[in-house]
Amino acid sequence: MSDLNKLTIKEAREGLLSKKFSSKELVVDCLSQIKKNASNLNTFVTVCEKESIKSAETADISKPLGGIPVAVKDNFLTLGIRTTASSKLLDKYIAQYDATVVAKLKSAGAIIIGKTNMDAWAHGSSTETSDFGPTKNPWDITRLPGGSSGGSAAAIAADEAIISVGSETAGSIRQPASWSGVVGFKPTYGRVSRYGIIAMKSSTDSPGPICKTVDDAAEVLGIISGHDPFDATSIDEVSWIKPSPLTSLKGIKLGLPLSYFSPQTKPEVKTTILAAAETLKKLGAEIIELSDVLDPKYSIAVYTILQRSEVSSNLARFDGIRYGHDRSYFSEEAKRRIMLGTYSLSAGYYDAYYLKAQKVRTLICQDFDKHFTRVDAMISPISPTTALPVGATKGQSMFGEIQDQLVEPSSIAGLAGISIPCGFDNNGLPIGLNIMAPQLREDIVYQIAKIFEDNTEYHLQRPNL
Amino acid sequence: MTITPIIGLEVHIELKTKSKMFCGCDAQHFHAQPNTHTCPVCLGLPGALPVPNKTACEWTIKLGLALGCSINEETFFERKNYFYPDLAKGYQITQLQKPFAINGHLTIDGHDIRINRAHQEEDTGKSIHVGDETLLDFNRSGVPLVEIVSEPDITSAGEAKIYLNKIQQIVRYLGVSDADIEKGSMRCEPTVNLYVDGKYYTPLVEIKNVASLTGVMNAINFEIDRQTKQFESDHVEKNSTNKTTRGWDADKNQTFLQREKEGSADYRYFPEPDIPPIVFTKDQIETIRATLPELPDQKIAKYKSLNLSDFDANLLAEDLVFSSIFDKVLNGSTDPEYAKFITNLLIGPLKTISLDIKKIKPDYFQKLFSRRSDLSSTIIKQLILESYQSDTDPLEIAKAKNLFQVSDTGAIEELAKQVITDNPKAVNDYKKNPLSIGFLVGQLMKVSGGSANPQLAKQLLEKLLS
Q1: Cβ separation A319–B46 shorter than 8 A
Q2: Are residues B252 and B314 in the same domain?
Q3: With contacts defined as CB-CB under 8 Å, which chain B residues touch A202?
Q4: Among the options A172, A331, A383, A411, which is catalytic?
Q5: Is residue B287 situated within a structural domain?
Q6: CB–CB of B47 and A96 under 8 A?
Q7: Which of residues 81-120 of A touch B (CB under 8 A)?
Q8: Count: domains in chain B
Q9: ipTM of this predicted complex?
Q10: Which residue in A20, A175, A203, A370 has its CB near the most CB atoms, within 10 A?
Q11: What is the full per-residue pLDDT of chain A (465 aa) written as tens digits?
C-alpha cells in the first residue's frame, strides 16, 4: 500500500487492526512524505526517523492511538529528544522528561515522528520567525502556514503525520489551522495540562490537537485532556469524552458577532463565513446577529501587555549558565518581547500597563459571559485574511497580534474553540471557521464542527504538492 | 546626643515539611549529597510548573495565628524577578500583596513588637564557592520558607534576642521547623538605624549573613556604635535612596558594606500565573486555630498563677516537650505547693536525663508528695529518679530500702547516743560552738541510712548534750 500517510485515525486503525498494513509501513510513509517535502516546506525541526521506526516495530495497536504517528510541536518536552522551541538558544537541549501531553500520547500508543517547526518560543503567527527557517504553506509554498504552531498545521495539511499537537496562547492552534486548511481544536484553558510545555504566556497557554478531521481532533483531545496533579491550573475534570454526534442543530443558538467583521476583513473571508452561517442555519441552528460584542481590537493591547510581561519572566531561566548558550542567542523578536515585558512590569509602570490590562481582561471575560446567556456558541472568521506571502512579517513587530485579533479575545477568556475548513479564497487558499463556546463546552464546539464537516467537503480537499 | 536604636527583624523559617514547597522532592537537605533532592520543578527546567504544598500553606497560617496575625482568606503567590546563579527560574515564588498572615504582634517585657506579615515563599539553591569556581547545589531550591517581618519596634540588641528566642520557641512549639540558626533553618536579617536627639533618622542598614543569635546581638551593637560615630561625623539622614546592605563578619566582629542604594532594586513583582489564588475559608482557618497548642506565653502565665517564680515558669515553658511533661505531672492540680514540689524534681534530678513523656507516671509524683514529711528531700530526689528509670512505685522502693524517715524518738535517741560516743571531738566542738551541731546531725543521718527525721535528730542531740 502507499499513501498511508494520508489516512485519518479511524482509517489507520482499521488498517492496522485488520493487518492490511503495519505501523512500520504507516510510519515509513509519513517519513518519506516528510523527506520529500523537507526542502519545500521545512515543517520539522527534528525528525525522529530511527526512533519512530523502532517504536513502530513494537507498537501495541490495541491502544487507542496504537502505532499512529504524531507530529509534536517543538515546545513540548520529549524525553531524550531535542526540544528547541525553534530557538537556536536551545539547539542542543535534550529534554529530561516528557510533557504530560506527550506522556499521554505515548501511553495511548502514539509514535512521535518528529518535532515541528514554530515561531521561536511561540512568539508569532507565521512560523516565519523560527530560528530554523520559515515553514511554508503546503497550499502555496510562497506563502506562510500561520503560527505559531505552523509546523504542526503544515505537517497535517501535507499528510506528513496522521495527527499532531500544538499549543495556543492567542490563536496559535486555530490561526495556522485556518491558513493551512486543517482542523485545530483549542480547548478550555486548564483542560489540557501545560506541564512540560515551554511556557510562553502561562495564563493562557492551551495545548491542543491539529488534525485532518473534527473526529480525529476530538479523539486526540480526549486522550490528552484531564486533570494533571503537576499543573496547578489544570481543571479538576476527568478526560473529555467526545459526545455522539447530533443529526440536527435544532435548538442551538449561534451568535454572529458583527464586530468580528471589520473593514479590514478580506471580502472572500467575509462571504465564506456568512455562507458557513447559512449552512449551519440549514442544519437547524438559529443564527443570531450580535451587534454589541466588544470589538476584538481591544484584546490586542491586553494580550500584548500580558504576554510580554509573562514572557520576560518565563524566559529568565535561560540565563546562560545552563542549556548551552547565553542570552545573545535569543532572536530579535524574543529580545524585543523581553524588553517590553520588563518595562511593563517595572515599578511605576505596573499599574498603568499590567494591572490595567488585567482589568480589561476581566471586562472581556464578562462580555463573553453576558453574550453566552443569549447564545450557545459564536462563529466568526479565524483570521481577517488568508495565508500571507513569505516575508509578510518583516519589520512587522505586531504582525501576530494583528493577525490573531479575532481569536485573541476567546483565548484571553480561556474559552473552548475550533477552526475548521469552510471554504477557499480566489487564490485557492483555505479559510477557517472559528467556533467559540463557553469554558468546558467543548461538546458544543464539537457538535457544530462535526455536523458542518459531515455536510461539507472542504476538509477533503488536499493541497497539490 | 541621645540615641534611640530602631531595629526591625526579618526572620526566615524553613518549614520541615516532608516535601518541598512546589514539588514532591524531599525537603530535608541538610548534609544531603548535592543535587540529589531535585526534579524538573525545583531545577526550574523548561515547562516545569509549581504545585503548592498544602501542608506548608496550613503551617504558615498556623504560625501566623500563633503570632497573633489576621489571616487573609484569599491569598496568591507572586513572582519576584531577579538574577542569581542559584535561583533556577530567574524568579522566586513569594508573596507581596496578599501574604497569608498580617498584623500580628509578640509581647516582650510588657510591650508589643508589631509583626507586619508572615508570608510564604520558596528557598533558593546554594552557591558554594571553591577557589575561583562556584558550584551550585539545588537540594535547598524550593524548600518552603515563612518570612516573618517585624515593624521596627525593637530598640536594643537584647530585645532583638528575646524576640528571636520567642519566635524560635513558638515555631518549635508548633513543630513546624527546627528553627536552628546554626543549621540555617532559621535566618535573621536585622535592619538598623538610629533616632537621634528626637529629630533625625540615620540611613537604614540591612545586615546579612548573621549565623547565630550572639551574632545578631553583636552585629546590632556594632551597627549602633558605627552609625552613632558616622552620624557625628557626616550628619547624613535617611532618605529613599540611601539604604545600604552590610554583611556581618563574625571573625572580625564587624559589619562591612555589601551593596549601596538598595532603594533602586526593582523586582518586577506580578501575580504567579502558574498558581491560582489560594482560598482558606473562615471555617478552615478556625480548624487550623484549633490545632494550636498552648503557647509559651500562656504556659508561663499559667505557671505563674501557681505561684512559681518567673525564673521557674520560663524554664519550664522553654520547650514544649518539657512543659508537656510538667503539665502531665501537674495533672490539672492547682495546689501551689504541689507545683513547687514537682518543679523541684523536674528541674532538679530529672532535668539531667532525657525524659520520655510516655514513661512519666504522675501518680509516682503524687505518692511522693503525699509522703513528703516522711522522706528527706534527698531521698525524694533519689526515689523519683529511680522510680522513673525502673518504672517502679517510689514508695515501694522506699519501703524495700527502708528509707522512710524514722520519727520514733526512742530509736533515734539510741542512735544519737552512739553518735555522741563515737565522735568525742565533735562533741567538744559543739560545747565551744553550738552552731557546729550540724556535723553531729549529719553523722546521725548517716548511721540511720538517711531515714532519721533530721529535725528530730537535732532536737535529741541538743537534749542529750545539754
Answers
A1: no
A2: no
A3: 273-274
A4: A172
A5: no
A6: no
A7: 83, 85, 90, 93, 95-97, 99
A8: 3
A9: 0.96
A10: A175
A11: 579 999 999 999 999 999 999 999 999 999 999 999 999 999 999 999 999 999 999 999 999 999 999 999 999 999 999 999 999 999 999 999 999 999 999 999 999 999 999 999 999 999 999 999 999 999 999 999 999 999 999 999 999 999 999 999 999 999 999 999 999 999 999 999 999 999 999 999 999 999 999 999 999 999 999 999 999 999 998 899 999 999 999 999 999 999 999 998 999 999 999 999 999 999 999 999 999 999 999 999 999 999 999 999 999 999 999 998 999 999 999 999 999 999 999 988 999 999 999 999 999 999 999 999 999 999 999 999 999 999 999 988 888 888 899 999 999 999 999 999 999 999 999 999 999 999 999 999 999 999 999 999 999 999 998
Q: Which CATH number fits the domain that encloses residue B450?
A: 1.10.10.410
Question: What would the grid cell of residue A374 be?
Answer: 443569549
Asked about A130 being catalytic, the answer comes back as no
- State pTM to two decimals: 0.91
Residue A148: active-site member: yes
Q: Could you tell me if A113 and A137 are in contact, meaning their C-beta atoms sit under 8 angstroms apart?
A: no
**Does residue A149 carry a catalytic annotation?**
no
In angstroms, the Cα distances linking A347 to A242, A334, A355, B114, B156 are 47, 22, 12, 27, 34
**Is B288 within a domain?**
no
Residue B150 lies in domain: 3-282
Q: How many CB atoms lie within 10 A of CB A319?
A: 18
Cell of A3: 499513501
Give Cβ neighbours of residue A411 (< 8 Å, ≥ 6 apart). A168, A169, A170, A171, A186, A204, A206, A303, A417
Round to whole Å and give the CA distance between A107 and A93.
24
| DSSP reduced 3-state for A86 | coil
| Count of C-beta atoms within a 10 Å radius of residue A264 | 10
Spatial separation of the C-alpha atoms in residues A8 and A163, rounded to whole Å: 8
Residues B385 and B414 reside in one and the same domain: no
Out of A198, A309, A319, the one facing B270 most closely (by C-beta) is: A309
| CB pair distance less than 8 Å for B46 and A321 | no
* Stretch 398-437 of chain A: residues touching chain B, C-beta under 8 Å: none
Q: Is A203 part of the contact surface with chain B (CB cutoff 8 Å)?
A: yes
Residue B274 corresponds to which cell in the numbers above? 502558574
Instruction: Please give the interface size between A and B, counted as residue pairs whose CB atoms are below 8 Å apart.
Output: 90
Top CATH class, A4-460: alpha beta
Q: Is residue B289 part of a domain?
A: no
Chain B residues with CB under 8 Å of A95 CB are: 46
Task: Verify whether the Cβ–Cβ distance A230 to B275 is below 8 Å.
Answer: no
- The grid coordinates listed for B388 are 522513673
